[in-house]
Amino acid sequence: MEERIDESVLGDCFTSAIALTESGVPHVPTRYILPPSQRPMLGPSIGTDTITLPVVDLSLLHDPLLRPRVVHEIEIACKEFGFFQIINHGISSSVVKDALDAATRFFDLPVEEKMLLVSDNVHKPVRYGTSLNHSTDKVHYWRDFIKHYSHPLSKWINLWPSNPPCYKEKVGKYAEETHVLHKQLIEAISDSLGLEKSYLQEEIEESSQVMAVNCYPACPEPEIALGMPPHSDFSSLTILLQSSQGLQIMDSNNKWVCVPYIEGALIVQLGDQVEVMSNGIYKSVIHRVTLNKDFKRFSFASLHSLPMHKKISPAPQLVNENKPAAYGEFSFSDFLDYISRNDITQQRFIDTLKKNNS
After folding, report:
1. 41-91 pLDDT per residue, tens
2. Which burial class, exposed, middle or buried, applies to 87 when counting CB atoms under 10 A from its CB (0-12, 13-18, 19+)?
3. Which ranges carry the Fe2OG dioxygenase domain (predicted)?
4. Would 195 disulfide with which of 24, 73, 199, 343, CB 3.0-4.6 Å?
């Protein structure tokens, strides 16, 4: 049997998942191995064979006669899963392809070039990293990422990677278009809750957008590691582009369900801000990322939230004597403070906001 890699050679230094894959390691290093109870069930027995995940044709939102039907579909998806896929969403296939191309080129850069952007500081507007936070994670996760603030684009784009030369233009175009899409989605979700569709209009105009561009390299032992641990996003919505299957969501029976890859579709995940705003009518979706032995997977997670310091709380229209406020208020900044001090694999941030009456 082949021996596992000698971790004393690596020490505590930064080692990216891409570098490990490229070095040809036959096994994942010990620090990536999950306890047996947390390992993914991979194989033909798991999947979407017993469950149909919602797919919404977003183009129908623009038809006044059909809009109520689509809003109802979104309501059902939000209540049952906190998740749905969207087709005919208005972002062209060329914009999507260009963004994926730019991401591929970035992760193909020499490690020294990417290390210019490396940081453990979760408050940094642009940072490259691996795992969740390689310096504090007890178990490491098999992913590399570049995260950057993306709205308003003119404020942040100069801080983005200058290499590859196409990165700012191609990823910038995709970021702008997802911001527009987020506005349409949040209006429909507000509508589905019985709120004015303009309920968060002002906050959306000034909103925060964080683009997390992820690379999950081929992993020699995908059955004992993960690309991302179970978590929910702090955001109002996350709009996710994936290059292949790998995302799993937890359903209402606490079972893991594989999200199929649909050519041209985007994934919409409800985040903690919508759970709080809806006073728990909708729940943020718990999800994780599994790995593949044969190829790398890319994803763009566009996390949309209220402005950095703007607090969100349950909508007053959804609070009454019978349904008191079930959550305290919070901001994106509060979330960043929490994750800089706490391990989100041990306790979800939203659980710290829940009141005893929930």
Report:
1. 775 544 444 578 999 999 999 999 999 999 999 999 999 999 999 999 999
2. middle
3. 206-306
4. 199
Q: Is the dihedral angle over the CA atoms 293, 104, 90, 77 positive or is it negative? A: positive
d(CA 226, CA 220): 12
* Cα–Cα distance for residue pair 138/260, rounded to 1 Å: 30
Which of 81-90, 279-288, 346-355 has the least mean pLDDT? 346-355
Distances (CA, A) of 7 to 19, 39, 130: 14, 21, 17
Q: Are 260 and 53 in contact (CB under 8 A)?
A: yes
DSSP annotation of 171: H
276-284 average pLDDT score:
95
In terms of Cα–Cα distance, which of 224, 241, 271, 77 is closest to 173? Answer: 241
Statement: residue 184 has pLDDT above 60 = yes
What φ, ψ does residue 186 adopt, rounded to 5°? -70, -30
C-beta separation of 261 from 66 below 8 A: no
Check: CB of residue 305 under 8 Å from CB of residue 271. Answer: yes
CB-CB neighbours of 146 under 10 Å: 23
Under a CB-based contact definition with an 8 Å cutoff, are residues 98 and 170 in contact? yes
How far is residue 271 CA from its own chain's centroid? 9
Give the rounded percent of residues in the chain with a pLDDT score beyond 90: 65
DSSP letter assigned to residue 32: G
Helices (H), 65-213: 67-80, 93-107, 111-115, 153-156, 167-192, 201-205
CA 122 vs CA 130, 208, 242, 305, 335: distances in Å: 13, 15, 23, 16, 10
Q: Which domains does the chain have, with CATH numbers?
A: 14-352 (2.60.120.330)
Residues 6 or more apart whose CB falls under 8 angstroms from that of 228 comprise: 132, 141, 143, 214, 287, 288, 289
